[in-house]
Specification:
6-stranded mixed β-barrel; 394 residues; 29 strands; mainly beta; single chain; 8-stranded mixed beta sheet
């Protein structure tokens, strides 16, 4: 295990005013989709929206795909503290920690994470998880309005980053299991998300142009239960279901990951990033041993054991648990979210996280598996949520 060099420890230069007013309108890509909103720079589309319950916490989980509308690379970051969801009864859901945001870097407390890089015409996927501490007495709603803000960044010749325009986003009338149909076709690159370089920054107004024509490529064409991240494709081969002690429901996802790029890839699972929601609103968290076959990025450490040559495939297993289900019926379909990071080994032998990818597999079905060994402890994510709301009541 090597020390992971944090990319967030970057200086921020003088802020620049928004140049949005100088932009000329770019062609719309939302095409009237009510789950899509857009700016002159990018479009943001809800690809999956789920509600669930863990303990006394009500949870909403949204997967959002951002698509670059420009003919230059853009860098986006999530503005810390801006994410909220309100239901039709006025209850407010908020992002409880940095771990509740996946796939996009955070802008907060004078620090930035510039890893969410989109090449011209490319798209990237993110996940936001928001919670509300339900006491059991309030009436909770069934439709939701979600708001969050992302901000542009530009890299300077010094290697520092200048913050640009903020883009407040709002999605109205969301409901459980809402999703936009999206294509997985991606630009045929030489410039991938990982290798694209941001344009140099200046104070001059940006010029918005339509992306140059690219030949689309779909790395999941003809493959069921597949998610295309751009650099690699992930296919769920099997979902196994089992019970431990007749009370704890365990799901195991066997996934094949294939390198679809023209360069070797080092990948690792983001610690504690697995989230599963079933069709009854049940919320599953990682087990004590949530990943096998792949290393983990955790608390400044990274395990680079999972290496793929171009075109090569390897299998990974992810495991989650829903504890103390009692007489509560288990769901019949499951939406699985997880995050995988691309790593780079530097000349100093330190390991740098290049990019985090948020993966979403909706409405999977499971098959029964043989008895499994006990999972020692529930995932820490669930416990953190429960502890958070206990503290609020004191």
């Amino acid at each position: 295990m090597k020390s992971l060099t944090p990319s967030v420890a970057l200086a921020i230069c003088s802020l620049v005013p928004s140049a949005s007013a100088a932009h000329q309108p770019a062609a719309s890509v939302c095409a009237g989709d009510p789950l899509c909103t857009e700016t002159n720079v990018f479009a943001a589309r809800i690809t999956d929206f789920r509600t669930s319950t863990t303990g006394r916490a009500k949870v909403v989980t949204a997967s959002i795909r951002f698509e670059n509308k420009l003919n230059r690379t853009i860098i986006l970051g999530y503005v810390g503290g801006s994410g909220t969801t309100t239901d039709d009864q006025g209850n407010r859901y908020t992002i409880y920690s940095a771990d509740a945001v996946r796939g996009i870097g955070l802008i907060a407390s004078g620090r930035v994470d510039p890893k969410f890089l989109l090449a011209p015409g490319a798209f990237g996927d993110t996940r936001f998880e928001m919670t509300w501490g339900w006491s059991g007495r309030e009436i909770f709603g069934l439709t939701f309005d979600m708001e969050l803000t992302v901000r542009e960044m530009a890299q300077l010749p010094s290697g520092q980053f200048r913050l640009g325009a903020e883009h407040p986003l709002r999605f109205r009338g969301l409901a459980n299991a809402a999703a936009s149909p999206v294509s997985t076709a991606r630009p045929q690159p030489s410039a991938t998300v990982a290798s694209a370089q941001p344009a140099s920054s200046s104070s001059a107004p940006e010029q918005v142009e339509a992306p140059a024509h690219v030949t689309p490529r779909d790395n999941c064409a003809g493959i069921a239960r597949c998610f295309d991240s751009g650099l690699f494709a992930s296919e769920v081969l099997q979902v196994s279901s089992s019970f431990y002690g007749n009370r704890h429901h365990i799901l195991r996802f066997n996934v094949r990951i294939r390198n679809t790029s023209n360069q070797p890839l080092i990948l690792a699972s983001t610690y504690n990033s697995h989230v599963v929601v079933d069709n009854t609103g049940g919320h599953y968290a990682p087990t004590a041993q949530p990943v096998t076959g792949m290393g983990v990025v955790s608390r400044g450490k990274a395990d680079p054991q999972f290496v793929l040559s171009p075109g090569q495939s390897r299998n990974v297993a992810f495991e989650v648990i829903r504890r103390n289900t009692g007489t509560t019926p288990s769901g019949t379909s499951f939406t699985f979210d997880t995050s995988i990071e691309q790593l780079e080994i530097l000349p100093s032998q330190q390991i740098r996280s290049v990019r985090q990818f948020s993966l979403n597999f909706p409405d999977l079905t499971a098959s029964r598996m043989s008895a499994t060994a006990p999972a020692a402890n529930p995932g820490e994510a669930t416990q953190r949520i429960v502890d958070l709301f206990r503290k609020k009541k004191k």
